[in-house]
Amino acid sequence: MQFSAEAPSHSTAHRQTETVQPGDDICGHYRALRQQSEVFCAPLHTDDFNLQAMPETSPPKWHLAHTTWFFETFVLKPFCPHYQVYNTYFESLFNSYYTGVGTAAFPRAQRGLLSRPTTTEVFQYRSAIDQQILALLRHDHPQREQILQRITLGLQHEQQHQELLLTDIKYGFSINPMTPIYCNRNDRTAVRGFPLRSTAKLNWTEFNEGMCDIGAAASGGFYFDNEAPRHRVFLHSYALANRLISNGEYLAFIEDDGYQRPELWLADGWQQAQQHKWQAPLYWRRQGHAWQLFTLHGEVPLNLSEPVCHVSYYEADAFARWSGVRLPTELEWENAAASQPVEGRFVDDGILHPRAACGEKQFLQQLYGDVWEWTASAYAPYPGYEAPAGAIGEYNGKFMCNQMVLRGGSCASARSHLRASYRNFFYPGDRWQFAGIRLARSLH
Amino acid sequence: MQFSAEAPSHSTAHRQTETVQPGDDICGHYRALRQQSEVFCAPLHTDDFNLQAMPETSPPKWHLAHTTWFFETFVLKPFCPHYQVYNTYFESLFNSYYTGVGTAAFPRAQRGLLSRPTTTEVFQYRSAIDQQILALLRHDHPQREQILQRITLGLQHEQQHQELLLTDIKYGFSINPMTPIYCNRNDRTAVRGFPLRSTAKLNWTEFNEGMCDIGAAASGGFYFDNEAPRHRVFLHSYALANRLISNGEYLAFIEDDGYQRPELWLADGWQQAQQHKWQAPLYWRRQGHAWQLFTLHGEVPLNLSEPVCHVSYYEADAFARWSGVRLPTELEWENAAASQPVEGRFVDDGILHPRAACGEKQFLQQLYGDVWEWTASAYAPYPGYEAPAGAIGEYNGKFMCNQMVLRGGSCASARSHLRASYRNFFYPGDRWQFAGIRLARSLH
Amino acid sequence: MQFSAEAPSHSTAHRQTETVQPGDDICGHYRALRQQSEVFCAPLHTDDFNLQAMPETSPPKWHLAHTTWFFETFVLKPFCPHYQVYNTYFESLFNSYYTGVGTAAFPRAQRGLLSRPTTTEVFQYRSAIDQQILALLRHDHPQREQILQRITLGLQHEQQHQELLLTDIKYGFSINPMTPIYCNRNDRTAVRGFPLRSTAKLNWTEFNEGMCDIGAAASGGFYFDNEAPRHRVFLHSYALANRLISNGEYLAFIEDDGYQRPELWLADGWQQAQQHKWQAPLYWRRQGHAWQLFTLHGEVPLNLSEPVCHVSYYEADAFARWSGVRLPTELEWENAAASQPVEGRFVDDGILHPRAACGEKQFLQQLYGDVWEWTASAYAPYPGYEAPAGAIGEYNGKFMCNQMVLRGGSCASARSHLRASYRNFFYPGDRWQFAGIRLARSLH
Amino acid sequence: MQFSAEAPSHSTAHRQTETVQPGDDICGHYRALRQQSEVFCAPLHTDDFNLQAMPETSPPKWHLAHTTWFFETFVLKPFCPHYQVYNTYFESLFNSYYTGVGTAAFPRAQRGLLSRPTTTEVFQYRSAIDQQILALLRHDHPQREQILQRITLGLQHEQQHQELLLTDIKYGFSINPMTPIYCNRNDRTAVRGFPLRSTAKLNWTEFNEGMCDIGAAASGGFYFDNEAPRHRVFLHSYALANRLISNGEYLAFIEDDGYQRPELWLADGWQQAQQHKWQAPLYWRRQGHAWQLFTLHGEVPLNLSEPVCHVSYYEADAFARWSGVRLPTELEWENAAASQPVEGRFVDDGILHPRAACGEKQFLQQLYGDVWEWTASAYAPYPGYEAPAGAIGEYNGKFMCNQMVLRGGSCASARSHLRASYRNFFYPGDRWQFAGIRLARSLH
Lengths: 444, 444, 444, 444
Description:
Four copies of one chain form a homotetramer. Chain A is of the alpha+beta class. In chain A, strands 12-11-10-13 form a four-stranded mixed beta sheet. In chain A, a hairpin with a 2-residue loop joins strand 6 and strand 7. In chain A, helix 2 runs antiparallel to helix 5, helix 2 runs parallel beside helix 6 and helix 3 packs parallel to helix 5. Chains in contact: A-B, A-D, B-C, C-D.
């Protein structure tokens, strides 16, 4: 991703640029990935760093500090004897929700009120912790294996916050009447605006009933605890749509009074839709008879062939019911995706916006990237799931209630962060993530 | 159940007593079950009929009217040509949540403000609709089969509301400082208070992994749409506790600071526990060093050997985590229960309170009756589930989000209403139902 | 007031009718006034006795009990040695807000949830306390003078609650879609509906500047502490409208977009009007192009010549601003009213609805009765005000903040309860009292 | 006031320093006063400029922009033909509450979410508007007199926001666990901490009853519309305490269970105190057995001889009742203050904190400065009050309900902004202003 040259002084003033070289060791990976968080902040002004437009989002400054806190708390404190805490206030201020670390977390909804420490001080905090982490990594240590595991977890954690950083900024900018632009599109399509392509035909890919293995294989590289243990399930025959649902298809739902017909909705969804007066996905803005879309590139005309995005689970479910079919379960999704390469449009591509499906591909496409796909599965532990011991065990397990699983990753996810077994989860009413719709149907 | 002789005038003044005889036809069943709702109201004073102590509960008068509305709306209106609506206001006032019936439902949280129609008028409404239903049943009708199906559904629906009537009254009385008594215990144990028995030993019953069939069999009598279709699942090996968790066991959790240790709780559960200052199950009342329990029989000393009751899913889950095991899934529960007879303590027994497990039984007991058992399963459609067409399809399907499945029935459920495939569902924070805990663990 | 003959059993079953005879002593006054509260409840069904449609209102049953509690607490307890409390629960349940009586008041917003004690039990409570009060009054007592003062205060208090009983019932019925009727109009005008008279011409009565005396004279019979001490004030010259503002005049304000023009409103009033979507006075209901009015007699066509009623202070103030004038201060009102007889339409007349001004009267009319008149005066202590010692001192003094003074009484006030110095007070947003508008203007 | 030299770049980068010279004309006054707002922001970091810790406060950036918007809206737009609006978004974003200016104000509670325009852009806005205002002032204009009036109003308005800027920053910093320091005390007393002096003896100054003139005299320089018209009132004899109530005296109230005794409180105050768990004035922090005080200089030990500060009207009133006396009316205050010079400790002194009374002075002291004094007077129009025509008339008049008048000014007010007739007003529950207590008592 290329950002404008006028990056504010924070990210450059307090640390030298790190370049990731091929063949880099763990230190290089660490530096590169940590720096990426700051690169994502480059288009921001200092004023933006404290912006928290709703309790579910966090200010950019907080994301930068919290990810650093994670390394300090789960690497430096346990593995560096005589480690001196950087700032005792930070132990609480930048704790997200861990109850097992000794200090209560600062209230989430008030993160945007933390004008201090300043953004500059947070960048200094990042720099100081990074130096100590890198020093730790450069030397022998009797627990090096565990340290590397924690480092890996911390980097995966940082990737998650990088995506949240983008979606939180997007939401924060969206409520500003001045329509701030996070970054201008610099590819050719952007110059001409989003092209209006006819939507690719929707096909169904069928899967036979049978036993299948679900979850991360212990041998296959990093995975989160919630992806384990790998286990057998029986699936009935089903079919998946070969691509995501487009804005044009969703517009047909709207124009067929989809938001006015309670019979299409889950009861809780209908209530939420009425309460918040939902009439379209988040970021759709009616302008006379046309629709505009708020994006990280500013407001643009709605492109009907792009995947619909920023819908809640309730809207995805209502759309599926209106379509006469349903959403896939996470098991059906993973069974289909397991055989596919992790290809698609990711944050690495720097577009930060989902793009239209390819008309020529008959088979499954857009499984990874573009938008997360709401599944019909409530977020729950797999059979035999065990949360890790200690505070680190709070990472995933304690959220296994009231949330729905999303699969596949989005245009704001890092390619290296995703895999078939990856389980994302949000509340069914959440709309500020890049989340969209893939349909499924039962064949039995 | 035997109630005191001083039943208020409503239930006797406006309808003659119906006695159910062996070999009774559908009319007899209809009359008997409908009358049962009024029998449950016999201990109430007119003042109690409008009591709605929280939005989730409904006033007794409303239950009586709504169940009648159900028959009027789904039997008389569609199947009686030229049917004249009893009272056009009732179409909205006593509609619970059906959006497909033409009139918007009166706001749920304000049902207790409907001082009119009066209780007497609601009893008259019941009587008038009953007469027309019975007339319809006594004559030939080209759609008799469908009518009988709807009558059956209406009676099942009424049984559900009979249980809610009891739990709603219990909650409504509980907030009154005067501790009203719904009915005195008239069995011998009651005279001497709840006996303190030592809790029966807890054993584990094991189940091997394998495929099993879940859901109601099409051939097996009435079932709700959410129990279908019957389908195959693969279960890993597991074990179920042979009985319910007792008050004594739950007290150990409390005394081990269970309500003060966030690491034992789901995040949403912890938040709710803090917000509402939960320190024990609903209806437990500390009195100095002892605990009292509010029941439908008034306040009694806590009996440690009785099943713990009126806990939320969050508390059940936290207790299981503290115990080092977990709650069963609804599939595991049904697999175990399918082979067991529907035996236990039900509303038919007239005790209206769960009772201690039997010490001699090694194998599964208390599966049915006493208290509903929270399962670890989010309420979701079975593979291939289809909601019925029309407004009747709103009965179950639209609630399949954010709620957890409970299994087995309670001391406030009718024996004839229950079966292995029966799925009850409530929000994880709900506590006013007779809901308790059975533990499970994985064996793989 | 004449009510229908079918009074429910409560008020007749448990006490014999008392007839007030000329020359009656204090016992007769006590009995008659206490009985009046029950007469006001005669048209109610038992279902209505627990109705509390918003926190600001109280259920009829609670009014009946609280006024009784007042006599028990402030007469029987302090003046009857060895008095046995009737029911210890009632000490808290029916305490409105007195903090100095030893028991905390039951939460106001939950009064409607007190299904027990039953209505019958509350009537028994009234009867039992009345007997003891009457016994106390019939015998000598060393503190007889103080007792008589307390009895008088208790009866004044009961008259206030009689008015609230009517306004609370009116509000409670208004939210019921079935439009319950409290009582049918039985006078001739009612038979023909409210006649549409042309509104009487509005004149101004002028008052010269100068010193005047404000507040109750110590020699003039009962008054509340907040009416004292009588004191001197200087008033600038002013004029008062000779009659109340009519519905027709208020309709002109509505039709001139009064509810859409923030420049006419106090800032807090505008906010409240927006929040609650006020478009007309409470109880006005648009029906096509016409307006209907909800009254204690049911819904009737709006009579344009009747005084506008059920407006908040904010609406009264906005109307006055729109009219180019202002509301009177309470001092200006009292100065004008002090010389006028307490004449008008009161609850004694049994109409329970304000009536049109008389066209022939040029001078001040409708000062008393019909509707309370919002003044521009915040409720505050008079210079030298002292609240009585003890709990009785909480009666008025602690409410002297955030409320506005109303003067004159309404069609729901007892004639014997009113006088020129009487100060009523409500929050500026309250609309459920019979409150209307008299205009004033400055002459200097 | 002297601030540290490290002022952030905003205020210096975009405008040259203006120095006020003796004999300066209106341009000099304008420049100096406008610059003062930026000087008050000098100790802030950019992160602080968006801080809005509760809806009642505004971010510093917003104050800077809104005061500029005031000049643009009420001077440049009406008096400069062909004026081009600086930024059409700003017309709404920085409108506080004026409904008559054509654009709806951005929601007050969300001002802290306006990360754009950036702080730098707001300083540019200030500079651009200032240039045009100064240009307007330097040239002849047919409406010069009106322009000068508006300029004066705008500067008075800016002084009000300068005080709010300080109190809002104080509140915003107070919720930060890191206890940010706005500025260090640089006088000698500060070096040694606040000295603990014995509190000066409290005397009473008496005033005889009689007529007096209240309100601003038309001939006496600038005043707000709410100070007019000057009018006669009759005052009963009264006495005023010669100084403010000290922390030590207030501590005695706390230690006498002042916060636990409802009989001392107004009903609304008691409710608010319970809801927010008030146990002491805002910014008092218990530390073991001692009290610390949060100030703009950081946290310091509570100085018992300083005036108590940051109390609500409810607390001031409860303290007065506990003391057996009362608060003064605004009329009593003004009558006493009218003869006194405007002397005291103001923002001009740069202390930003109230200071102890002087022990030697028997007569009235601390009337001006130190802390605003809550009066017992609800904010209401004076007899004959007329709001100016147009949007400018919204400045004061529409707030004349539900608020209480404060008199005298504080250590955060400018000396040149104050006078005997000045009426400040806040809601009785507001605590974040420098507001304290002067007692009064009636002598008749």
